[in-house]
Amino acid sequence: MRVVGFEPCFSVVDVQRAVSHYEQLGFSSSYHDESYAFAHRDNLTIHLAHGEQPTAGPGALYIHVDDADRLAEEWRGAGVEVVGPVDQDYGKREGSHVDPDGNLLRFGSPLHRRGAYLVGQPVRSGTNFSSSLFVLSMMSPPLASTSCGASCQRAAFGNAR
Question: Which of 4-13, 47-56, 64-73, 86-95 has the weakest average pLDDT?
């Protein structure tokens, strides 16, 4: 048995508002019914489930992209608030956005600078970090902040420190 994928499930107060917001972020959408929808982009699907009073609080996810600046520019151009991106000392350029229901979308791309370090190892010349948009990890609500520090680093790079 092996895990073949995963999809985050966000609790939202108003499914149509959530769908409209994710479409503004460049996602396509589909519906199961009026209380359950999906936001799709590249290899990422986010479930948007109606919930008047979420039991687990807002969700969070980390999205790897090939160009964090380009995604931030795209989302700002669509009229949404984006924090960053900024260079991190662990070899990533990261930004974030919080949707209308408080769900955190963090995104990042590798720093492309000579001699950058990633998990304590020099990046080898010719290493290709480009990828489609995809989710790396889900975070519990206590980690849902614009800066989750070491916890995100462990999620992003494993426990190889």
Answer: 47-56
CB-based contact 64:134 (threshold 8 Å): yes
H or E stretch covering 134 = strand 134-139
Query: Alpha helices, DSSP H only, in 11-105?
Result: 15-24, 68-77
Environment class of 82 (CB within 10 Å of its CB; exposed 0-12, middle 13-18, buried 19+): buried
Distance from C-alpha of 85 to C-alpha of 138, rounded to nearest angstrom: 20
Higher pLDDT, 82 or 142: 82
Q: Which distant-in-sequence residues (6+ apart) come within 8 Å of 7 by Cβ?
A: 44, 45, 46, 47, 135
Where along the chain do its domains lie? 9-157
CATH code for the part of the protein at 9-157: 3.10.180.10
Q: Which residues contact 45 (CB under 8 A, 6 or more apart)?
A: 7, 38, 39
